[in-house]
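Comment thread on ticket #2218

A.B. wrote:
> Attaching the input chain for the structure job we discussed in standup.
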Amino acid sequence: MKQITVFFSVFLMLSCSGKRETETSKATAMRLITYNVWYGFTLVPDRKNMYLGWMQGQNPDVVSLQELNEYTPEKLAADARQWGHDYSVLLKEEGFPTGITSRYPIEDVQRFREGHHHGVIRARIRGIYFYVIHLHPSNWETRGREIDLILEDIRGLPQESRIILAGDFNTFSPVDSAYYAHGRLEPFFQDRDVANNEKNLKEGKLDYSVIQKLMDNGFLDLEYRLRPENYSFTGSFPSRIEKEGEHGDQRRLDYVFVSRNLEDRVISAEIINNDTTWILSDHLPVRVDFRLE
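C.D. wrote:
> Ran it. Output below, let me know if you need it in another format.
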């Protein structure tokens, strides 16, 4: 009987110790996922359960979402509970809403609509200001004005604020220019500009000015900075999901940028391209892990 009691005591001690380690680890870490979920799965409702299961398996702490078409706050909250989040915010209920969900309380929520094509959410989570981004899909001039508004808002935050911008920026980074040197994207966008009266190209060329503005203001492109030596470019769009029409060559449209005071907190950052994510949405998700105090 004494041996059983001792064994149980040791088992309980180890269990509690493991629980404390897990809780401590979780308290000092943060996993962020940003994902454009293509019309809120309204075009592929059969993929929704697969998406919920995938997100649950990722065990995220904060999720930035774009294209939550036909979502309500209640619907987003129900999704969030599937991956363990009790907190969520939806930008709007019409058009192409963005949203954010979190394991931790979401504070100081600001919704910006004026001057933005889709709109922007700004919220504070664990002392960090998150911007949920979805810039104009087909007009480089509008994207430039949108990023100027975002940067203006950032300048109004308290000094030394920790800031994360995550989402679908719908534009190109100069650090990826070598991967677009094949020249196939320019004629693709030229055709779109003529046929649909869009403004994808700037004087016949890909526009890098939006991302350049973020870089010039000190923001760090995490996926780019943490690419491994054997890196192979996939971009984040288009995926391999069944979708009508021509969508052009692979390109990176989805980013996570952080202020420099978060630089040494980043553990990993990558575009997730596997058998599941290639067919869930027309974009691939970006995942970033942080170490926080």
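A.B. wrote:
> Thanks. Noting for the ticket: Residues 1-24 have pLDDT under 50 and may be disordered.
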